[in-house]
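pasting for ref
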Amino acid sequence: MKKIIKTIILITIFVQSSYLYANDLEFYLQAAFKNNPKLNAERENLEAIRQNINISRSEFLPSLTIEGNQTSIESSNQTNQSGSNLADSNLNTEEKSIVIDQKVFSGFQNLNSLKKSKLEVEKAKSQLRQVEQEILLKTAEAFYDLIFKNKNKSFNIDNVDLFERQVETDKARLQKGEINLTDLAQSESSLSGANAKLIKAETELITSKAEFEKITRVSIPEDVGPNDKIIIKLPTSLEEAITISEKKNPKLKIARLDSLISEKELSIEKSKLSPSASLNYSKSENSDVSSTIDKSNKETVKATLSWPIIKGGKNYASIKKSKHKRNKSKLILNDQENDVKTSVANAWSVYKSTASLLEATKSQLKAAEIANEGITLEYDSGNTRTTLELIQSRTLLLESRITFARSERDLIISKFKLLAEIGDLSLNTLKTP
């Protein structure tokens, strides 16, 4: 019996802790970070590009080739110069060889290719960082939008309940002669409108849930609440935000790396006009070489020096093409620097304005609650408040609640967007205390 009770307690604790953990934003951020296919595809891309370094390094190392072949020759109907027939003959030849090639100098082409490969890996890391930020931002947006849509549905359910009670009350008051049919019709019309708004809120919630699961690839509980434990450390000024973005923004890093890669590509094309040198060593064994030679061994050492002068203008055209690409990368870098500054300034402005808007909507909600409470009491006591005034008051209260909840969502999302713009959005910067 004690074991059964202990098991039930453990299961209950596990279910409760899992439910609480599943309501935690950090849980969903980690789930998206691990499961999102776009993010995993970018990780695979990084690992593939890492191999370019090994490919470039291989150009510095010797290559080894082992070959072997066997040839069978059958000669028949042979005659000499006098026309006499010669005997048929068979010749089976075997050849085994080993060849070693070593590039000694290639005009620094190999060295520049290796440097380019390392830059491409850094670019792939920045691209991965950019996708990580996009997925984390989308997860946060979906999480807080889901909270807002849940609240929106709850507000509309309460609104429908209020109007249902009002319709029942107005029917009783009509029988007593306290109101007329017009007042009842207004209440019934408002109830129909409230039901329509509730249906819309439910539909939006379903869509929000589908988008959330698409991003995180995990199922969500029925009720998702806000996580106030997440600490978001933001810059204290716009100038600080711009300074951080110049160091961390992945788009800016990618543009800088593209500019450096284009420089290396130009150097590679120029090195193709330089002389190159290589060494070649080969050793071969042959058997049944001819009717007079049974075996033959050969060893060859060859040094090769080449200097391409002209290839129909292809090499010079390639250099010009690389110069244009380098100039293009520099222009894009300059444009990206300006674009990042503008984006950070916009994100900072949105963050500040949404913070001010939240305070305004909070005051609006408080005033709407006080007004609705007073009008409802006056209406229920049979004073001069009309049905239309009561309906308007409740409509204003509903809109104020929704606006305040939306402002809460917009403020927290604006913080995430600001972090993303400066390039500081990561799981490490969103840890709970």
